[in-house]
């Protein structure tokens, strides 16, 4: 059986599956859930009640990002995450998920919110 591609694996993920990992990652490094939600909201346009609804409904990343209003400065997110240079990812869904991963990583690494939010 062929090994699933990176894009196929991303398409099967849900926001619900990844969210606890995001929380654990940022809290382990002394950052707050509020800061995490601020970062997610900046990227997607979703507020707290919407995020809770996505978690409860086990929303796929595909649906999550199809409903999102990506921040106009999202294209400024650059760098390597999970071995992929985010600005070079061609699949739009994979790129958006990796944008989110990159922002969570920056938050966990102690970067200032103004820098993370490309202000």
UniProtKB/TrEMBL annotation:
Pfam families: DUF2200. This is DUF2200 domain-containing protein.
């Amino acid at each position: 059986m062929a090994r699933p591609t990176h894009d196929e694996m991303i398409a099967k993920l849900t926001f619900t599956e990844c969210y606890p990992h995001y929380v654990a990652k940022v809290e382990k490094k002394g950052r707050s859930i509020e800061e995490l939600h601020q970062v997610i909201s900046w990227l997607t346009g979703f507020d707290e009640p919407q995020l809770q609804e996505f978690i409860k409904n086990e929303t796929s990343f595909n649906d999550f990002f199809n409903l999102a209003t990506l921040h106009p400065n999202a294209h400024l997110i650059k760098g390597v995450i999970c071995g992929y240079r985010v600005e070079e990812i061609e699949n739009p869904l994979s790129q958006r998920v990796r944008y989110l991963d990159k922002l969570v990583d920056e938050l966990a690494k102690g970067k200032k919110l103004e820098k993370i939010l490309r202000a």
